[in-house]
Amino acid sequence: MTREEEISAKLREVEGKIAAATSRAGRVRNEIQLIVVTKNFPVSDAQILYDLGIRAFGENRDQEGSLKSEQLPSDITWHFQGQVQSRKIKSIASWADYVHSLDSLDHARKFSSYPEVKLRNFFIQVNLEPLRIDRGGVSSEALEPLLEAIQSETEIRPIGLMAVAPAQVEPERAFAQMQEIRNRILTSFPEITALSLGMSGDYEAAIAAGATHLRIGSSILGSRVLPA
Ligand SMILES: *Cc1c(COP(=O)(O)O)cnc(C)c1O
Asked: Looking at ligand 1, which atom is closest to the CA of residue 199?
């Protein structure tokens, strides 16, 4: 089997499962965006995906995303989903169309100070594991104060929330919690409607919980040689 055939078969399988989960949830496919996470995979794999019609790619590292975005066609939408580092913000803002992992007022201020960039779409990452601060994301308690500060002090208007389901919690529970948090803030922040939830191991549960953006890597591209 060629790499093209392999990726094509896996993509079709994932698309089939997305379609089934979507109809089980009584939802429609076009309200769900599949982002194929190409981190740690070569640009040739991303090109294969592009030729198969994929136009949304996810990357965790600035340098890798920046290089790939230069080498691939310009009608691709790039999603940055790794932890934001302050000194990388200007660069991230030069190639990414979406940031899924905004979690601090300082970073929002810094992104906001580059008005020339194309980056307009931000998700706030919520940390569902309050004891693990190394993971990135704000706690559910700190979310509204952060949103209020971003709203009043920067030009950034987040469109959604992002989370990674904690390993020791059932994804159904974690994603239901995200749905509750989103519903809770909706009265104060009606423009925050999107939910970036679901990876290779849990995207069907994410669809059931109202995810609008799925970030899927290994089920389509195979296991990564390097750790995430
Ligand atoms: C790596 C990563 C993904 C994709 O993970 P897979 O298990 O390969 O599907 C999604 N979201 C984030 C934040 C990631 O770091």
From this structure: 9
pLDDT in tens, the chain (228 residues): 999 999 999 999 999 999 999 999 999 999 999 999 999 999 999 999 999 999 999 999 999 999 999 999 999 999 999 999 999 999 999 999 999 999 999 999 999 998 666 567 999 999 998 777 677 999 999 999 999 999 999 989 999 999 999 988 999 999 999 999 999 999 999 999 999 999 999 999 999 999 999 999 999 999 876 555
Q: Determine if ligand 1 sits within 6 Å of the CB of residue 125.
A: no
Q: Ligand 1 pocket, 177 CB below 6 A?
A: no
167 — phi, psi (to 5°)? -60, -35
**Is 145 among the domain residues?**
yes
Say how far apart CA 19 and CA 13 lie, in whole Å. Answer: 10
Nearest atom, ligand 1, residue 100 CA? 13
3-state secondary structure of 135: helix
> Which protein residue's CA is at the shortest distance from atom 12 of ligand 1?
81
pTM over 0.90: yes
Give 66 Cα–ligand 1 centroid separation in angstroms. Answer: 18
> What CATH number does the domain containing 142 carry?
3.20.20.10
- Give the number of domains in the chain: 1
Q: Say how many Å lie between the CA of residue 3 and the centre of ligand 1.
A: 21
Q: Which domain holds residue 154?
A: 3-221
Q: Where are the beta strands (DSSP E) in the chain?
A: 33-37, 56-59, 77-80, 98-102, 121-125, 160-162, 194-196, 213-216
